[in-house]
């Protein structure tokens, strides 16, 4: 799914990023001092979405090893 990103000014200063993914509620990422910081965060988020980190599979305490 394609996520859209918008950098918006915050009323008290700084910026936030609005993320909208079809079929989900909009989300925001806050706390960016500059537009450049917000845009750098967007670039990282897009990379993570395209290449999510591998998940480790852990065995519960009651699991038996094989």
Give me some keywords for this one.
three-stranded antiparallel beta sheet, alpha+beta, single chain
What does this molecule look like?
The chain has 66 residues and is an alpha+beta fold. The protein has a domain at 1-25. Helices cover 24% and strands 27% of the residues. It contains one helix and three strands; from the N terminus they run βββα. The longest helix is centred in the middle third of the chain and has 16 residues, at 35-50. The radius of gyration is 17 Å and the shape is elongated. The mean pLDDT is 87.
Please outline what is shown here:
The chain has 66 residues and is of the alpha+beta class.
Largest sheet: 3 strands, antiparallel
Structural category is: alpha+beta
Rounded to the nearest angstrom, the radius of gyration is 17 Å
Query: What sequence of helices (H) and strands (E) makes up the elements?
Result: EEEH
Oligomer: single chain
Strand order of the largest sheet: 1-2-3
- The gross shape turns out to be elongated
The residue fraction in helices comes out at: 10-25%
Average pLDDT, all residues: 87
Number of DSSP strand runs: 3
What is the overall number of helices?
1
End-to-end distance:
37 Å
Strand content: 25-35%
* Unreliable residue runs: none
